[in-house]
Amino acid sequence: MNILNLLNVLGQTTKTILPLACADRYMITNSRARIRAFSTPKRAKYIIIISCIFWLIALCHTPIMTIIVNGQCTMYKNWYFMLHFMHFIP
Q1: Do 1 and 59 contact (CB within 8 A), yes or no?
Q2: Which pLDDT tens digit goes with each residue over 68-84?
Q3: Number of structural domains in the chain
Q4: Three-state DSSP state, 72
Q5: Which domain holds residue 30?
Q6: Contact 25, 18 (CB under 8 A)
Q7: What letter would DSSP give residue 1?
Q8: pLDDT digits (tens, 9 = 90+) for 34-53
Q9: Please, are residues 55 and 12 in contact by the beta-carbon 8 Å criterion?
Q10: What's this model's pTM, rounded to 2 decimal places?
Q11: Whole-Å CA distances, 10 to 4, 6, 54, 61, 76
């Protein structure tokens, strides 16, 4: 995994974790005890780990499906659409 792909994964993970942190803050400050009980440090760690694993798997096609043709990086045609679609998910 090269550094550019790692930066891409970290960027997508950040875009995912920020809304999850906002949802966690909302749950902690909610007046209903049932919703407050849903927000625990153990659950937060689990969700962060799952989101990191998800983005590592979802974006692993970038370094694998990129090829060099005549000194330019290109992608296989079927994967080009998938790469651009992944940027619209979060």
Answers
A1: no
A2: 778 777 766 666 566 66
A3: 1
A4: strand
A5: 3-86
A6: no
A7: -
A8: 999 989 999 999 999 999 89
A9: yes
A10: 0.65
A11: 10, 6, 12, 15, 24
